[in-house]
């Protein structure tokens, strides 16, 4: 007979305290013992055993009809796939859905549903956790939630949805008390949509999520005061994180890798403004940050060398504020400031359109330095002045008064005389002070720094010590006094130790960034966000051993976001209060740790009476702490106290709608004292973690390539093998070396033959692939060769051909029927 061995390859996808970037895991598994009411709470529990969406929906509807206000705790059947055909599973208010081991909800092959789960409009206090959702590439959402509030999603795996994996729409960017949280979710393969899509939200939080192989990893639209923290966005074709028409949101410590664009910041200049993009890491993208909008702040972002264009200005970009300390950026027409610092003493341009004048002085008194500085500015009034102070010890005999466009580098120690401020500035912009030590020598009655009405400044990598004994309060002895300063006012990586008043005091103004500082042993507070201070980011600071509070947010301070701070051994860890100035409101406290404080988290207010000196009329004002958001904070080791209000959480009177969600309270003598002004939502949680994605995604991450080049059907090395087959055969998709392809052979030496053989490399880590050898005698009709050990055998030719245990070489041997004059074999690889 004529023997024509032919090999075909076919790949199909089945339809079935911190550096920039990630900071480890911020989310802590909560341990709430009640859902909303600390005492006397009754809930209805549904433990589904049917595995049927329709049966489960009937049970949910019946339970809600029986009681309109109870929480419904809905537990799905383990090891079960629930199929969605025409209607999604529908949830409403006060419903908490939890999966179990190997529980999933999936689209059927004929589904017409709009989503797998729908949270109905107007719902609140709804949660979904510990569940896999598989869209099977159907045209639907994983979870669809239009017009909802206080929805909490945690530990979900969502894949292969034709629409957004998660679509969550709040109640509008100007409406508070509609916080939405998404944590620890892995969302992938929404190839024409977003993994996580948030719209019309206020104080939304995305934390510790992984979004990969979507069009957008995370898409945030028409929202305000959102917090996107510690997320990973990888291999998304359009953008890792995209935002449109958002205001006053904080996007910090995220990793964007292998996306078309790392960050896309789009929208009209009057709608997309005042957002902070801080301490993110961007790798392997053609564009790092695509920047539009107005007055958005970029600071401390890290661009890897394989980012082609770190900063791209959109055609609709207004003037934004770019303060970079590690990487020079091309930013024409922007408020650009690249100051030299103690860790980066560069010689590049510092501001657009300005030269630089470098003055190096070994003068040993601040007054002499002031003289040299003034002379340099007089000679070069239009330049940025870089003042390098090289003396090991400098006597602070007079304040060093700084003007706009000035950078100070301090090598040694300034020892302040009594009554002398080290640095002062008023109504100035584009300032920096970096390096060295300022020693107050335990004299008091003056600040270390006094900046008034300044903005666009950086205080970086400095030590401040001995500003008074902490046991005795002395007014006017704050170490860093920042008064009515504007966006951005940056204090980073500084150490403050010892003071008779506050460590860092921000009073008035807004747009402060305080990051990675330690402020300890102060008579008052480590960091005080004081009267009317707003729109600030306080992150990853440490505030131990202060006399009043570790972190104090007080006196009508609003819209501030405090993230990932550690406060320990203070009377109050985080204190949110108002005594005289009006409500302290709309602040967010996310993933902070309060350890061994007498009181952990405290909210409260006071009644203030004032008397008109002329009319003698007494006016009584109730000052409150209202509408603050506390999410996933850890409070531990709160000790025993004789004060009944001392506890891990104390939400006192004179306040309302202080929203506490998913906290971890551990080893406290008392977890709760007052709860008058608190609203709780302790949704169910799992202590078991999902195993992160493996398979193709792991393989994808092992190469430095873009999202489009890394798609399963792409062929970046143009060897006619799509990436899916390169993965299946454990090959390098970027190598120009000819690949080791499967081969067909003819075997007449083995008994009971003749045999047609098919030899191929098998990736041992490809647990998401199905390998099949197909046979045909006419190239039209194909059938799977079943290894039956009679007419078809599977053999291992080499168990470790590459020496690293990653693959093996297999050979399929099938009997060649002499009655056939031709037989064709091919490999089919299917990814689930």
Can you offer a commentary on this structure?
This protein is mainly beta and 832 residues long. The protein contains four helices and 78 strands. It has a 21-stranded parallel sheet that branches. The longest helix has 14 residues, at 53-66. It is globular, with a radius of gyration of 31 Å.
Structural class: mainly beta
Basic shape: globular
Strand content: 35-45%
Rounded mean pLDDT is 95
At the first level of CATH, what is the class of the domain at 444-681? Mainly Beta
Number of strands: 78
Layout of strands and helices, then pairs:
Blueprint: E1 7-13, E2 43-47, H1 53-66, E3 71-75, E4 81-84, E5 89-91, E6 95-98, E7 104-107, E8 115-119, E9 124-138, E10 141-145, E11 149-161, E12 166-169, E13 180-183, E14 186-188, E15 194-199, E16 205-207, E17 210-212, E18 216-221, E19 227-229, E20 232-234, E21 239-244, E22 250-252, E23 255-257, E24 261-266, E25 276-278, E26 281-283, E27 287-291, E28 297-299, E29 302-303, E30 309-313, E31 321-323, E32 335-337, E33 356-361, H2 366-379, E34 384-389, E35 393-396, E36 400-401, E37 406-410, E38 413-416, E39 423-426, E40 429-434, E41 437-439, E42 449-452, E43 455-460, E44 463-467, E45 480-485, E46 489-492, E47 495-499, E48 504-509, E49 512-515, E50 518-522, E51 525-529, E52 537-539, E53 542-544, E54 549-554, E55 561-563, E56 566-568, E57 572-578, E58 584-585, E59 588-590, E60 593-595, E61 599-611, E62 618-623, E63 625-626, E64 629-631, E65 634-636, E66 649-651, E67 655-656, E68 658-661, E69 664-666, E70 672-675, E71 678-681, H3 696-701, H4 723-728, E72 743-747, E73 755-763, E74 769-776, E75 783-784, E76 792-798, ...
Parallel strand pairs: 1-78, 2-3, 3-6, 4-7, 5-8, 6-9, 7-9, 8-10, 9-11, 10-12, 11-13, 11-14, 12-15, 13-16, 14-17, 15-18, 16-19, 17-20, 18-21, 19-22, 20-23, 21-24, 22-25, 23-26, 24-27, 25-28, 26-29, 27-30, 28-31, 31-32, 33-34, 34-37, 35-38, 36-39, 37-40, 38-41, 39-42, 40-43, 41-44, 42-45, ...
Antiparallel strand pairs: 61-62, 72-73, 73-77, 74-75, 74-78, 76-77
């Amino acid at each position: 007979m004529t023997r024509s061995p032919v090999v075909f390859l076919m790949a199909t996808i089945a339809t079935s305290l911190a550096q920039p970037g990630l900071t480890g895991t911020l989310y802590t598994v909560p341990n709430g013992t009640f859902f909303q009411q600390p005492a006397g709470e009754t809930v209805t529990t549904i433990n589904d055993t049917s595995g049927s969406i329709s049966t489960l929906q009937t049970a949910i509807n019946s339970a809600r009809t029986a009681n309109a206000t109870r929480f419904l705790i809905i537990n799905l059947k383990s090891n079960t796939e629930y199929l969605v055909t025409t209607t999604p599973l529908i949830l409403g208010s006060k419903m908490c859905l939890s999966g179990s081991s190997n529980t999933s909800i999936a689209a059927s092959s004929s589904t017409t549903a709009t989503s797998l789960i729908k949270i109905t409009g107007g719902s609140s206090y709804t949660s979904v956790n510990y569940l896999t959702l598989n869209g099977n590439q159907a045209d639907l959402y994983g979870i669809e939630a239009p017009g909802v509030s206080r929805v909490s999603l945690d530990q979900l795996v969502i894949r292969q949805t034709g629409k957004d994996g998660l679509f969550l729409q709040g109640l509008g960017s100007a409406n508070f008390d509609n916080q939405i949280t998404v944590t620890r979710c892995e969302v992938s393969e929404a190839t024409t949509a977003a993994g996580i899509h948030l719209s019309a939200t206020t104080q939304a939080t995305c934390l510790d999520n992984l979004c990969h192989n979507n069009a957008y990893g995370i898409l945030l639209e028409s929202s305000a005061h959102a917090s996107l923290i510690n997320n990973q966005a990888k291999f998304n074709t359009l953008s890792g994180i995209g935002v449109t028409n958002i205001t006053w949101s904080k996007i910090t410590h995220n990793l964007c890798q292998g996306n078309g664009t790392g960050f896309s910041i789009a929208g009209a200049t009057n709608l997309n403004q005042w957002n902070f993009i801080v301490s993110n890491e961007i790798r392997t993208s053609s564009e790092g940050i695509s920047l539009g909008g107005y007055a958005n702040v970029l600071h401390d972002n890290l661009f890897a060398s394989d980012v082609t264009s770190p900063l791209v200005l959109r055609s609709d970009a207004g003037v934004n504020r770019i303060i970079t300390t590690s990487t020079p950026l091309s930013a024409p027409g922007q408020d650009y400031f690249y100051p030299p610092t103690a860790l980066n003493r560069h010689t590049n341009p510092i501001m657009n359109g300005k030269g630089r004048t470098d003055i190096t002085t070994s003068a040993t008194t601040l007054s002499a330095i002031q003289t040299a500085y003034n002379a340099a500015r007089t000679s070069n009034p239009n330049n940025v002045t870089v003042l390098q102070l090289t003396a090991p010890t400098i006597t602070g005999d007079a304040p060093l008064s700084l003007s706009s466009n000035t950078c100070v580098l301090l090598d040694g120690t300034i020892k302040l005389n009594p009554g002398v401020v080290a640095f002062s500035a008023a109504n100035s912009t584009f300032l920096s002070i970096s390096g060295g030590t300022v020693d107050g020598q335990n004299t008091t009655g003056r600040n270390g720094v006094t900046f008034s009405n300044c903005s666009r400044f950086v205080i970086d990598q400095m030590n401040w010590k001995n500003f008074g004994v902490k046991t005795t309060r002395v007014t006017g002895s704050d170490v860093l006094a920042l008064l009515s300063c504007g966006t951005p006012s940056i204090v980073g990586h500084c150490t403050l130790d010892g003071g008779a008043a506050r460590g860092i005091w921000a009073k008035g103004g807004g747009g402060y960034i305080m990051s990675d500082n330690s402020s300890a042993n102060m008579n008052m507070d480590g960091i005080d966000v004081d009267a009317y201070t707003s729109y600030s980011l306080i992150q990853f600071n440490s505030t131990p051993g202060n006399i009043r509070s570790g972190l104090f947010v007080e006196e009508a301070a609003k819209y501030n976001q405090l993230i990932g701070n550690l406060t320990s051994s203070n009377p109050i860890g985080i204190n949110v209060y108002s005594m005289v100035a009006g409500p302290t409101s709309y602040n967010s406290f996310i993933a902070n740790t309060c350890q061994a404080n007498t009181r952990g988290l405290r909210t409260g207010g006071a009644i203030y009476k004032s008397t008109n000196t002329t009319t003698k009329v007494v006016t009584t004002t109730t000052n409150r702490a209202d509408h603050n958001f506390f999410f996933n904070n850890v409070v531990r080791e709160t000790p025993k106290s004789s004060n009944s209000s001392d506890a891990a959480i104390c939400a006192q009177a004179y306040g309302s709608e202080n929203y506490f969600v998913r906290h971890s309270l551990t080893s406290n003598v008392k977890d709760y004292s007052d709860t008058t002004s608190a609203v709780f939502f302790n949704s169910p949680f799992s202590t078991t973690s999902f195993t992160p994605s493996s398979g193709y995604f792991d393989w994808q991450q092992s190469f430095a390539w873009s999202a489009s080049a890394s798609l399963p059907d792409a062929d970046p090395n143009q060897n006619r093998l799509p990436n899916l087959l390169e993965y299946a055969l454990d090959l390098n998709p970027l190598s120009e070396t000819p690949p080791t392809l499967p081969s067909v052979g003819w075997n007449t030496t083995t008994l009971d033959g003749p045999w047609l053989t098919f030899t191929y490399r098998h990736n041992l880590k490809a647990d998401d692939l199905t390998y099949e050898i197909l046979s045909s005698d006419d190239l039209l009709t194909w059938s799977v060769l079943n290894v039956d050990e009679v007419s078809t055998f599977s053999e291992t030719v080499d168990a470790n051909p590459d020496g690293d245990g990653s693959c093996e070489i297999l050979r399929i041997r099938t009997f060649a029927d002499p009655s056939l004059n031709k037989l064709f074999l091919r490999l089919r690889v299917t990814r689930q």
